[in-house]
Amino acid sequence: MLIRYGYEITLTCLQPTALVCLLSIHDERAPDIRSPETFFTTPPVPSTVYRDLFGNRCRRLVATPGDFLMWGDATIEDSGLPAPVMTAAREVPVPELPDDCLIYLLGSRYCETDRLSQIAWDRFGAIAPGWGRVQAICDFVHTHIRFDYMQARSTRSAFEAYQEGVGVCRDFAHLALTFCRCLNIPARYVNGHLGDIGVPVVDPMDFSAWIEVYLDGRWHAFDPRNNVPRIGRIVVARGRDAADIPLINSFGPHVLRSFRVWTYEVPYVAVVPTPWAALPDERYS
């Protein structure tokens, strides 16, 4: 299948403001791109792209004072299949983990392994290691946290999400991956596009957060927020937690004026990028 995805974001800045944006999809999906990303700003400004320490594509630019719009749109080919469920996947003992996995066992800005370690072992320590234990963690987080977009808080940590029992997709991800790390299972934070393909349309479209867990020699996607295999995940960035991969890192004050995201299936025809005003309104958040 073909999936069209994109965003339109308007900031208001008081002065020229340096930005680093993680909005383009990860290089690993480059072979699947069918309509390359069209990116522009209004007013137009130059931008450059570099890769960060985690291999994510970062766009660097300077926003002009006043309203500043960023727009991106592309089309990608996807298998159209839900993420695989590999119930036989085993945990890898720490001495056998690749060196680059070890960082995903440690505590980080939003993931306090020290404060949640005993809770993790008390709740999940007796469950057989492997896929089933990770799924048990996701099952718990899925029911323990109540999704409430109006109670989103950028400073909420995994421990606070556990205590408060409310949050958004990033809070589900932070709590689940922290429990995994407490049990010596490497886990990393992921954000990207996830449209309502193959499921009822429930939430307005937005960027999504989920986790990847290292089992049996490879990374596997788990989604404690939705907690069912989904079609059409498009990774934008990976890191230890949300602090590593903000969508927009602003080096100066700004106000978010508008924010729209679209992700939906399109037919196999010639795909030509279209200005956001021509996109169907129901695709917007």
Explain what you see.
This protein has 285 residues and is of the alpha+beta class. The protein has two domains: 2-80 and 246-269, Immunoglobulin-like (Sandwich), CATH 2.60.40.2250; 94-239, C8orf32 fold (Roll). The chain contains four helices and 14 strands. The protein has helices at residues 113-124, 131-144, 158-164, 169-182, and strands at 2-13, 17-21, 33-42, 47-51, 57-63, 66-77, 146-147, 166-167, 187-193, 208-215, 218-222, 234-239, 248-251, 254-266. The strands form four sheets. The chain has a four-stranded antiparallel beta sheet, with no helix packed on it. Strand 7 (146-147), helix 3 (158-164) and strand 8 form a beta-alpha-beta unit. Helix 1 (113-124) crosses helix 4 (169-182), helix 2 packs across helix 4 (169-182) and helix 3 crosses helix 4 (169-182). Residues 274-285 have low confidence and may be disordered.
The structural domain count equals 2
Q: What percent of residues adopt helix (DSSP H or I)?
A: 10-25%
Largest sheet: 4 strands, antiparallel
Poorly predicted regions: 274-285
Please indicate the percent range of residues in DSSP E strands (runs of 2 or more): 25-35%
Radius of gyration: 19 Å
Write the layout of secondary structure elements.
Blueprint: E1 2-13, E2 17-21, E3 33-42, E4 47-51, E5 57-63, E6 66-77, H1 113-124, H2 131-144, E7 146-147, H3 158-164, E8 166-167, H4 169-182, E9 187-193, E10 208-215, E11 218-222, E12 234-239, E13 248-251, E14 254-266
Parallel strand pairs: 7-8
Antiparallel strand pairs: 1-6, 1-14, 2-5, 2-13, 3-6, 4-5, 9-10, 9-12, 10-11
Helix pairs in contact: 1-4, 2-4, 3-4
